[in-house]
Prior knowledge:
Elements: H1 5-13, E1 27-29, E2 32-34, H2 37-60, H3 64-69, H4 71-85
Antiparallel strand pairs: 1-2
Helix pairs in contact: 2-4
Amino acid sequence: MEKCPLLRWLRVHLRITPTFHSESLVVCQNGILWAPPMFLVLILVEATNVVFAIDSIPSIFLPPQVASATPMAVSSAWCSIVRRRFRRP
């Protein structure tokens, strides 16, 4: 996990608390805002969602002859996009 470039960048540019703080995503200690580790988890999960959403974009632009030949692939791609877009928090 320490090899993750995004995680390393966040640790350098954000003040990270060493412990979790219940449900808070931002903690104020001595008048300074700190991010608990749960904030890092949230950022990494959302970055992964963005990567998978970008990965699904080419399936939207399939030419009609390919789309008619592979309706399962197209419907699967659309379902994954809709599922990511309208999922419950």
